Structure prediction request, 142 residues.
Amino acid sequence: MLKGIDPLLSPELLHTLAAMGHGDEIVVVDCHFPAVSSARRLIRLDGADLPSGARAVLSVMPLDDFVDQPVAAMQMVDTPEIIPAVQQEVFDLVREAEGREVGVERVERFAFYARAREAFGIVVTGENRPYGCVIFKKGIVR
Prediction:
């Protein structure tokens, strides 16, 4: 155990986040996402919901402030204009972690899958609510 480190940040997840460079993306998803077949690097957080997993990642990883939308979220298929509660919880955590308003890109489902396959890694949580899928673009520590 390390002092001051979220216990969800396993050695594997910490290594993945530390190995990422500026502009690399990490995807944090619900248990329904095809993570095993999509991931270059797969990290499992089966006992955590999406907000807890996102909070752990955001506790050590800065978001990119060189782009307008360093966060992306999967759109709902039939109602793309609606933001699911699980995503809104994460957006609130982002604002809190960054201490600023952060732009969010809404991404069509299959475009999200394609982008996730190109990401540095995928963190799959035990989140059971649908559309619990977000992407974070890594920034730099100032």
